Amino acid sequence: MAKKQTAGRDHLGKLAPQFAQLNDDVLFGEVWSREERLSARDRSLITIAALFSAGQYPQLKSHLILGKEHGITKQEAVETITQLAFYCGWPKAWSAFPLIQEVYGEEESPTDGVPSNLSVFPVGQPNTAYAQYFIGQSYLAPVSTEQVPVFNVTFEPGCRNNWHIHHAKSGGGQMLICVSGRGWYQEWGREARELHPGDVVNIPAGVKHWHGAASDSWFQHLAVEVPGEGARAEWCEPVTEEEYVKLN
Ligand code: MN
């Protein structure tokens, strides 16, 4: 969501009240906020490009801050300036990179490198608790911790979990609701099924299986833990490189 702007009134309300009103109510209130036409993140990217091109560094810094609020990552900001350098001039990039440093700081985020526009669900944190049962990097975000637990699982390209079984005395099992990218689901002894956003996988309790990303695509699914008596997961062997390569 584009943030409601008061910058015009805050800074220029006294000197140029009509400019301030046009800035806050028309430019931001009516144009920036028309997100059904162009997202706030995209509007930030084109505005950053325009200000960079014009060499408007104080304004560029303000829009790097706004772009960060609209979901642009440090890595994406660096990539943007790197490309723009070819079109607008090398020295401008030298002036712009320090602004990115000021806005984002030195700190590396644990989710640096994860595309910011995968889906509407959060990426969460690196999935360290289960990392031993995964090949590649995955991320886990709780979507619901009440009633029925739901987690958003993000897999980097090539990442998949080991063969595993969701056990339960009654009920139990797992549902996967795919929300982004391309991935795979396979039950033991069966052909793998290719997964796309909107696909739903119903995994009965007791069935040995694995799920994960395609080798060339990020992948996200919601994992719904179906309540069951004595529900627990049993983790087995990894999906071998040979089996996995055959799919992709
Ligand atoms: Mn599973």
Oligomeric assembly: single chain
Arrangement of strands in the largest sheet? 1-3-4-13-8-11
Number of helices: 7
Structural class: alpha+beta
Mean pLDDT: 95
Name the shape in a single word: elongated
Model description:
It comes from Candidatus Egerieisoma faecipullorum. Residues 17-101 form the Carboxymuconolactone decarboxylase-like domain. It holds the Pfam family CMD. GO terms for molecular function: peroxiredoxin activity. The chain has helices at 7-12, 17-32, 40-54, 57-69, 74-88, 90-104, 241-247; strands at residues 125-126, 134-135, 138-144, 150-155, 160-161, 164-167, 170-171, 174-181, 183-187, 193-195, 200-203, 209-213, 219-225, 228-229, 232-235. The protein is built from seven helices and 15 strands. The strands form five sheets. A six-stranded antiparallel β-sheet has the order 1-3-4-13-8-11, with no helix packed on it. A three-stranded antiparallel β-sheet has the order 10-9-12, with no helix packed on it. By secondary structure, the protein is an alpha+beta fold. Helix 3 crosses helix 5 and helix 5 runs antiparallel to helix 6 (90-104). The structure holds manganese (II) ion. Manganese (II) ion binds at residues 164, 166, 174, 203, 209, 211.
